[in-house]
């Protein structure tokens, strides 16, 4: 038997060593997270996080590369394809997704969320397959059906590396154990799903012409990508900690199954292929449906995410009128005039509420004193609010003319106690929020309108104030 047709020495050993290396990355992250103090070593933790973003993709690249046992592809080509994946994510995918899917990770209800995830997955997988199709696919080095797996996985890993970097930057280098675990699984998932879809590129190049082969590959990769994303999004944030194991383990099992399928396909390869060259018309028709899917996904995402939000309206004491997303749920609490909460996202920190309190409960007044200034009321309210939270930090405060009425606004970051703002919210544990209290007075009564946004959404520039319409006036 030709030596080139035997497994390369140490194939399984090297694969096992690589996987152990990935586990060591997670273990290292765990040790660092438990050893270093974030406030003192935040810069060092961020640098370590950046390493974590790129080390797992490189380790996975060696695992995939070693599966090509018959006619190994040039390492330079494989590495360049990885770099291409990173460039596609940063220079093409990221700008496009910010325009067509400005709130891709959240939706007002479960169906919107699933649709968003599917559309994002479809855009990702279409772009990745097209990137391989118009780059290495036309090279003479793409001479086996399984070359689609090798180059597709390399491009997927480059794409994953930049996605990981974006995630780490959003989290400020914190929760290293959770981040490193997600990075390992995300890298394998992107590599496996794109490797699987690009395997059909090899079929396309060396098999009979079939117009539905590539769109079918994209749809399959999209379904797997979306399922993996939904599983990983099963994470629950508990204050500064993350309960991530359930989502990560289930997503890992899915990625490992697909990886196993790719390994089987590579062992069945017979080496270089001889195929009939497609005509220009066939080449155009084979990839056209993928372009149609990509454009359709972008148009659909843009239309849905920019459609007017359906709202519900409530009128309250003090001439207060609030329009809020109709998908939010009203909560009945004795200490609130009104509260509506987004139960689908934000862990209970996405809400709008109104409280009515007497001036005398905030500030002690002598009989000859009139109504205090709004600034004084605001200061007293801030002190009272600060006592209700585990952590409270005012960011800024300022007077504001609102619909011709004097108001006082306080913006602050808070960490709630163990009770959610409303029963039934996604997380009953402490959560971080960014809030605005809009304070107005009418006679002896003070009205406080609070619009809160979960801190993660705030970092992603999703402000619930943009979803709320307020109107203030006299009774």
Structural description of this entry:
It is built from 12 helices and 12 strands. It is α+β, with helices and mostly antiparallel strands and 475 residues long. Strand 10 and strand 11 form a beta hairpin. Helix 1 (11-35) runs antiparallel to helix 2 and helix 4 (110-133) crosses helix 6 (176-206). The radius of gyration is 27 Å and the shape is elongated. Strands 5-6-7-11-10-9-8 form a 7-stranded antiparallel beta sheet. Strands 3-4-12 form a 3-stranded antiparallel beta sheet, with no helix packed on it. Strands 1-2 form a two-stranded antiparallel ribbon. It is 53% helix and 17% strand. Residues 1-10, 104-108, 236-243 and 418-429 have low confidence and may be disordered.
Query: What spatial order of strands do you see in the largest sheet?
Result: 5-6-7-11-10-9-8
Helical segment tally? 12
Rounded mean pLDDT is 79
Write the H/E string, N to C. HHHHHHHEEHHEEEEEHHEEEEHE
DSSP strand (E) fraction? 15-25%
From the alpha carbons, calculate the radius of gyration and give it in angstroms: 27 Å
Instruction: Provide the helix percentage.
Output: 40-55%
Q: Give the biggest beta sheet.
A: 7 strands, antiparallel
Distance between the termini: 93 Å
How many strands in all? Answer: 12
Q: Detail the poorly predicted runs.
A: 1-10, 104-108, 236-243, 418-429
Given the C-alpha coordinates, what overall shape results?
elongated
Structural class assignment = alpha+beta
């Amino acid at each position: 038997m030709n030596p080139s047709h035997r497994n390369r020495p140490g194939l399984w050993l090297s694969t096992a060593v690589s996987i152990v290396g990935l586990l060591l990355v997670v273990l290292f992250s765990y040790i660092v997270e438990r050893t270093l103090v974030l406030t003192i070593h935040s810069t060092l933790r961020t640098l370590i996080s950046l390493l974590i973003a790129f080390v797992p993709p490189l380790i996975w690249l060696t695992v995939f590369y070693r599966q090509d046992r018959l006619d190994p592809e040039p390492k330079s080509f494989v590495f360049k394809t990885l770099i291409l994946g990173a460039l596609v994510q940063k220079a093409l995918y990221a700008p496009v997704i910010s325009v067509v899917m400005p709130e891709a990770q959240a939706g007002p209800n479960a169906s919107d969320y699933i649709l968003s995830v599917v559309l994002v997955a479809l855009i990702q997988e279409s772009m990745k397959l097209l990137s391989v199709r118009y780059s290495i696919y036309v090279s003479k080095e793409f001479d086996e059906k399984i070359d689609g797996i090798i180059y597709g996985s390399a491009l997927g890993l480059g794409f994953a590396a930049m996605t990981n970097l974006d995630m780490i930057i959003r989290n400020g280098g914190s929760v290293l154990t959770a981040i490193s675990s997600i990075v390992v699984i995300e890298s394998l998932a992107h590599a496996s799903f794109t490797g699987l879809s690009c395997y059909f590129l090899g079929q396309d190049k060396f098999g009979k012409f079939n117009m539905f082969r590539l769109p079918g590959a994209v749809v399959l990769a999209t379904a797997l990508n979306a399922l993996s994303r939904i599983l990983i999004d099963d994470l629950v944030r508990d204050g500064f900690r993350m309960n991530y194991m359930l989502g990560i383990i289930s997503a890992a099992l899915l990625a490992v199954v697909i990886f196993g399928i790719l390994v089987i396909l590579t062992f069945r390869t017979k080496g270089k292929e001889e195929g009939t060259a497609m005509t220009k018309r066939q080449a155009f028709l084979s990839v056209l449906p993928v372009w149609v899917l990509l454009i359709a996904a972008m148009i659909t995402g843009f239309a849905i995410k920019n459609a007017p939000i359906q709202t519900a309206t409530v009128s309250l004491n003090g001439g207060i009128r609030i329009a809020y997303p109709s998908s939010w749920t009203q909560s009945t609490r004795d200490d609130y005039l009104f509260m509506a909460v987004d139960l689908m996202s934000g862990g209970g920190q996405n809400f709008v509420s109104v409280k009515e309190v007497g001036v005398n409960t905030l500030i002690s007044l002598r009989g000859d004193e009139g109504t205090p200034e709004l600034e004084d009321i605001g200061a007293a309210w801030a002190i009272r609010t600060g006592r209700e939270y585990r952590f409270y930090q005012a960011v800024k405060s300022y007077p504001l003319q609102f619909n011709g009425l004097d108001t006082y606004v306080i913006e602050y970051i808070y960490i709630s106690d163990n009770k959610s703002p409303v029963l039934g919210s996604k997380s009953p544990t402490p959560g971080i929020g960014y809030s605005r209290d809009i304070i107005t007075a009418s006679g002896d009564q003070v009205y406080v309108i609070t619009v809160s946004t979960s801190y993660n959404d705030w970092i992603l520039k999703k402000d619930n104030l943009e979803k709320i319409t307020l109107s203030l006036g006299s009774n």
